[in-house]
Fold these 3 entries.
Entry 1:
Amino acid sequence: MEGLSSKGVLSHLSVLAVQTKSRRNPPQQSTRVKELKAEAEALMMRREQLKAEIQTHKSLQRMRLSMDKGEEEMDEDSENSQLLQLMAKHSQLKDLLYAHHLIGGYDIIKTSLGKGVCVSVTTAYEGVYLDTYNLEIDLKPVLRITRHNVPPFIPLNELAEQNNIQTNIKAFLDVLSQHLNAHAGRKQQLKLVKERFPSVDVMESNVLCSILVLMFTVPRQKTAVLCTLNYSDHTRCLPTTVHIQCEGRTVSTDNQGPPSTVYNPRLCVMSMLSIRTLKHNKFKCPSFIY
Amino acid sequence: MNEENTEEVKVLEAQIEQLQAEVAQLQRQQQNNHKDMTFNFSGQMQEALLYLCGQSVVRTKEEVVSRLEEEVKEMEEDLKRQTQMNGINLNSCTTKTLQSGDSQLIQKFCVSGYCSELNFLVEFQLTEFKQNQRCQREISDLNVVMDATDLKSFNGFLLNVEEHNDHLLFFRTLRTFSDRCDDRSRTFQHLQDKYPSIVSLPGGCRSEIMTLNHPQLPGCVLFIHWSVDVSSEGRVTPKINLLTKIPERVLQLFPSQTVGGAAKFFQSLLRILGPEAALESVIRAICP
């Protein structure tokens, strides 16, 4: 009021005049202001929402920490503590279930008819997740694999029999996982060899990836080398025998012998796969033959 | 535009600017919180979150709670099933988000649990790449901690697993290893219960040693050393050996092969009868 009187009646009148004038053409006046007001309001809502979310997150975090430690929750008086508790429990269960999935648990689910279960076998090589295989198993009257997408060259029925699927389904799944992971690993090795060494010719390979014949040339000597990797143990992703042939000379090694730095199959494969950047040294391995 | 409006616009613009800054600050805070612990809000969780943040007017609290409760119950059952099937109990799993973008998500997992009597803590980084609608997942920086005071054979294996980020192999082998250890302790326990006067387990039923004493011959002791070896590639092989502690003089008096070559004979017995029956027949031979 003070301000008003000091400014005088005239100025007040002029303000009123302006207001009336502006009221006469409302669209021009309000659009911008309206827009801004709406924007401000939206932002305010967003701010409140974020604040609430952060608050909830913090409460949940606190509850999860004590829940993971196995401590009993202190009863908070907040009206929403029951809901928060449930949410913490929910998040804990969700994380545990995801962890089971990540560590290669068999992701068992009941089939819709309730007669059997579905299980999945995850494969990975050097940390990279590869194909997942699924099996549908009827539980009654006897355990029976009804449907699956396991490749035909994996002796599924034999494995089921050998490992007493009827009494010990876990042992069967472990062995199956071993076979599938070994196969996935061998397949991935073949893929990596093709990708990383375009100069290497893959002369021969099979679907089981149990035999791999590679041909390459030693850079300086210009000698052709034929390398045969034999994976006779199908539960392993490393060769059991490595056979290197060049210009009439032959060197063989099998995994049973004492590991030598040069002919150790693991090192052989690994060095081929890992020496990516050193192009000139790429096939240093065969040059040890001389 | 008139003066009044310009002023109002200015005030509003300033207000908006400030709000934007505040929102950005809060978003950063939220992201940082997710770095500490990531929660997955979807389905009923999202409903609950919306309710708590005062944005859900459709549902009452009771509704939200009961729906969430139902889902929690289902998940508990699911977890029970997974645990049973996996043979591995998980105590906790925490997730931190290290990096989150359109094509790449990096999360750090810390999983702890136990398999039979063996506790473990596993940490790893999970990277998800999205490329042309295909999602590739990769595990790196695998770190396994086990309170392995008596797991000497495990060390080489763990090194190999960590080097090759082979977490699937780790859990598969852990399961097989603890199954074999359980077999051993079950057999030891069974034999001790059946022949308490002869069998003793100095290190408890989970240890590798079982001793057999003849009640009337305190000087003669047979030791059964049953170890479970794990190769660096994760092959689990139980090894059972018979060791004898028989005084020199007895061996001189009875230079028979049965006493001296006991260890060798035991191996044939093992091959023919299997562990439990072989051990039992040795015990029966001592039985007065």
Entry 2:
Amino acid sequence: MIQLKVNGTSRQFDGDPDMPLLWYLRDILDMTGTKFGCGVGLCGACTVHVNGAATRSCSMTMKQAAGKNILTIEGLAAHGDHPVQKAWKANNVPQCGYCQSGQIMQAAALLKQKPKPTDHDIDEAMQGNICRCGTYQHIRQAIKQAAGVKA
Amino acid sequence: MSNVYQVSRRGFLEGLFSAGALILAAPLVPEILKGSEADNAAFHPGVYVGIQPDGKVIIVVHRSEMGTGIRTTLPMVLADELEADWKRVQIEQAIGDRKYGSQNTDGSNSIVGFYEPFRVAGATARTMLEAAAASKWNVPASECQAKNHEVVHSSSGRKLGFGELVADAAKQPVPKREDVHLKSPADFRYIGKEVPITDLDAIVTGQRAFGMDAKVPGMLFASIEHPPVLGGKVANVDDSEALKVKGVSKTVPIETFKGSNYMFNPLGGVAVIADNTWAAFQGRKKLKIDWDLGPHATYDSVTYKKELQETARKPGRAERQVGDVDAAFAKATKIIEAEYYVPHLAHAPMEPPVAVADYRDGKVTIWAPTQNPQAVQTTVAPAVGVKPEDVTCNVTLLGGGFGRKSKPDYCAEAAILSKQLGKPVKVVWSREDDLHFDYFHFVAAMYMKAAVNEKGLPTAWLGRSVYPPMLSGSDKPSYGGLGSMGFIDVPWEMADFRAENGMAQGHVRVGWLRSVANIPHAFAVHSFIDELAAAAGRDRVEYLLAALGSDRIIELGGGGRGGGRGGRGGANRPNPYPIDTARFKRIVEMVADQSGWGKKKSGNGHGYGIAVHRSFLSYVATVVEVEVDSKGGIRIPRVDTVVDAGTVVNPERVRAQFEGAAVFGASLALMGEITSGDGRIQQSNFHNYPVARINEAPFETHVTLVKSDAAPGGVGEPGVPPIAPAICNAVFAATGKRVRDLPLKKAKLV
């Protein structure tokens, strides 16, 4: 029996311990805000926080998630009012929107680590998150706005 | 057909509107578009708007949302003419139904095709509300005006809310089109303003459901091992190990499409059924299948490229000709030739193909991210032996589309499995499935030849393009068909011109990708004009303006095949979209000005390139700045784009489309390539089919929209074609190296 916390709620899982956290969240808990994009940690659509660190949930097994605190897009802020979400809205970042949960979780982790990121910091932190619509320029603006640094 | 009419609550509408609501349907085919589509016009009854007795306005959007913002933009148009308060508008997504007219969200056509009908629908409802108020107050209708969700009597100042008027308005005769007055642009409330997308809050909180998130009680999960080669069939399958995977319940064979008729039909293979996605994926890895691979198992991209290039060197079928290029070449003093090549590309939307199907008692319900819900109906129906009207297709948000999700093969797979298993089934494609079995953008070879005069300007032009046909389903070589996009409509002023198309045989599924044949054609045409300018030693902006020549309208008729969206006029009908060289020249001048063209010299690994292209009825000029480092790595610090798309409804979202197009174009130019060996696609995920990431994409893109009240052009696709040639022209300016084969990552720049 694997125990873990998801968005503050204690959960137990007795399925395949090799199941990736992504599919546990999506298919077992029906928390579909975390997206499937590549399955091998190359696109970032499935990014969640594991004990506070941005993590690709497609590449972490339930065995590895045991005992951890998982935060997903659904739990990032009570009313969607995390500074990153607010900046995302103010800057109209999403186009199709599919990758944006992952982008937002990655950006939130970046700002926790580096509250005033440079362009280089943003490139380093965000290059694992693909956006096929090409919203990168808006993402960069929104991160800077959330951080209160000059665009 | 030109009138809006009132409809009763029925079917889908019944669930949406309460009793007493005013519901209007309008024809979806503007008069101007009827030329070639006259036969279908009678089946195009409706865009719907309804007003509830509580005043809530419900607008049904029949086009799919894949990131352009159309779910917001079309309702803005209707709400504007209706004088509705945007806060009291509810937007509903239409199911697939031919009564809406074409729902195929492609061709950058949603605003082009539906701007006018949505305006008429809104204005008609407004007119009926005003008439209802006039009759209630017993005053002339001309004294009653709708204003922000109320009708106001001008002299007395009396007011009635839309909700209070609904019951009486529904009894009013529906006015004829000529009695419905559209607003003056000066009075627009929403058109031309920046309105955030309706799904914004739900997207940033992870609440908005995409196709991947669809769920039906009792649903099973399926992952399909497709034949590795197009047209391959299962010879033998051993599923004993797959069935041992925890959560896997069974395997189900799916028949391969018949003959070479792949079209939208399932590829075939073996489906692994499980109680979650992961188990289905794991089970698939344990399948042991012997394949009968069929004739395409020899498809090899290296050999095929040579074949296409050989064909492009020989005369093809003339798609359009003016004057006599052969005679002009024979007496020319200077001739320039060049060959270009663009490989297969994959759509790679962030959400791979996925669909949920529920087959019950001869009826099927589908939930899918699809650009074309009616094609879902007509594809699913024969696959499971029902009528198209017995297929209900619910359209979810699309996690990207780019043309891939116009083809509903994955929906047919889900329906076949649901029928067989007697339960709802969700088919999930992995990224590997997506890249191995895409409808690939066609690989293309182009041969270009021009005679130039003493100023270095082209006087005679021959363009020859060869690529396998889209969705041909043919096992013989044939013409690419869309030879017109960007190739017959070359705007340079020349006496002699011919565009030709050669034959090729497809070996993988080939389908349209964002901007379609404009991708290879714009690459060839705008690289070649840059080569001519280089040979003449002239400044590119000055040269392009000279090559565009006099202000004139280019007629594609006469000696040409197919219009390539050159215009939309019919017989005896004015064309609202003539190819106008003055509009080309204007945006070239504007983009030069905006980018500071000529202020910084190119060279030493730093350079600027320009391309100007018209597609999907819009004109786009782009300047790209590149830096090439000592290892040949390319950085794009800045892109400047000027767009003349005529009337623009939601400028903020339109600029976003062109920013995105710069990234999409940079991806294909820098790194996009799909190859085949032994009939198998050699790319499998984002490590070997890379797309631009934040550190590789253009660092900043500046987009200016030309202020215009001309008929609206497309915006989803036209930003893509100029990017690749502008990048390569900039690389040439920076390094002196001319790259004629994409992608750039394979070129030796240092």
Entry 3:
Amino acid sequence: MAEKMESIIQTIHLTKQYGMKLAVNDLNLAIRKGEVFGLLGPNGAGKTTTILMLLGLTEPSSGEAQIAGYDCTRNPLEVKSIVGYLPDNVGFYADMTGRQNLRFTGRLNGMDGVELEQRISELLDRVGMTEAADKKTSTYSKGMRQRLGIADVLMKDPQVIIMDEPTLGIDPEGMRELLNLIRELSVKDGRTVLISSHQLQQIQQVCDRVGIYVEGSLIACGTLAELEAQIQKNGTYSLEVDVEPCDDRILGMLAGQTDILNIQKEGRRFMITSKKDIRPQLTHFLGENGYTVMHLHQRGGDLDEIYRRYFEKAGQNDESNKSETKKKYGRKSRA
Amino acid sequence: MKAISQRQRKNMAGNPEHETGGRTIVHASTGRNALIRKELADHLKSKRFLILLILISCTSCASLYGAVSGISDAIAQDSNFIFLKLYTTGGSSIPSFMSFIALLGPVIGLALGFDAINSERANGTLNRLVAQPIYRDAIIIGKFMAGVIVIALVIFTMGIGIGAFGVLATGLIPETEEVLRILVFLCFTTVYVSFWLALSILFSVVCRHAATSALASISVWIFFSIFMSLVASIIANAVYPVNDQYQAFYNSLNNYTLNMNLNRISPYYLYSEAITTIMNPTVRSVNAVTMDQLVGAISGYLSLGQSLLLVWPHLTGLAALMLVAFGVSYVGFMRQEVRSN
């Protein structure tokens, strides 16, 4: 009950159906005030649909979504005045400067005059865009657009910020700044941040909790540690090994071992799945047979692995999924 | 309105805890007004508008020149309502201002609207816009209103400008009724061009690409302006053939009426017919008149009220067309998914 009190975003049996396809399937999500929540899933998992429903831009087929106590479908104006939304591929009016774009957003939110100008300067400064503020946005790079997008979102001083794929197409330096900024929005300003992404590495650095989303269903939700623990309990161990010399003889030798469930060769690496931690025996065994271990890595613990495991659990083929993700990458996501 | 929203802001600034309960939302009309303001600024500053303005000014000047050079002949025929002749008279091979506007007016509407929605979608600004605290219809209403304002501005500037130059060039002084007729003409024109704006906005909602919607709206314009009369006469001749004297005797009236009614489907024809009546007080009927109806009629001018009465169906028809086009685009836009793909 106490948890319910402080949750700011809440969905209750939220479902969205497009024709025969279930885009979002019975989603029950509670996001607490002030946390950074990562909504993870491949493209087409229903992340954007969920976000649009939270903003009242798409009507749910059944169930409801609430932000700060407002029903997202019935009171979209109330919701939209406290929720900032940074869409994927955020766009600006190309023939207006960054400052003019922000001014327009400010006016849409009922600001005007000196107060508006002050807020614009303040936010431009905050996202480090003061220098480029009076250039037309058509000259901006992707990273600059993203930063201006954050300033744009902050114009209305939102309690909740929803970002759709914010890390897409940003260089490493820009990424670091962006993640710092997101962290700051949550810690310093006390805003709630909901990030949807399929890029796990970046997200795990900033998220307090994550939800993993596959084909419209939330299959896991919790902190990283919780998800990891959940996996280790019912899971197996996975080992990455790189040996010298790298020959196929080792495959046959290892396949006969009792604890090893599966062994695969991926490029120069062997992927070994086992029931228990076999690292000590394995190094010993390899050493005895004249192999030198070049690389040994126990998988798990990072989000990538958790993600992969959950996909496997959800009955998805990891490989085909990855390649599909890559294929879709270039197009605008429908996720 | 402004005062209220500023007070809200101040409350929020002084209260970093983000009180949700006490926070009232920004009134919906604030957003719409901001949108209209931005759209207006966009239109007026755009190169497209500049080009249109140059085009329209040039044709207006040409037609004024034609009218001034041809006006003495026109006065020789009929010396009443001379000032209106500045708008309705063409010179040798130069069409009148009225026919120029009937043909080129739609271009203004089409150019202002053909990328209204789909360019927002393509640039990714639409989903940023709908996430602001405004109703979704504020976007399309704002765009349409801004377009109508620009159209009215252009039409009235041109119309009054023609009059002013006419006064300077010819020394004619307009009478009250002439001024009223001109104002009615300009209002008619604004509605007519707004219809084309609404149509192009409709295409911009339906088509994903600005190029497609531009082509579609231009083809509709060309069809109605040029080919509709051909189609109408083909159909009329097929239904009421007038190939020999015998057929002509029976069918010519029906043929003519059907032909005209079919033509009236085209907003171009509807508008042309209406403004000809308004700008020319000698026009006493828009339909075919039989000889026995003319018996005993005294040749004279219609008053403005009577002229208006004659074309009232045209005006309501045009306004209805405009509203239907806008209504369809409104509904289409409201039902469309926001996501960009």
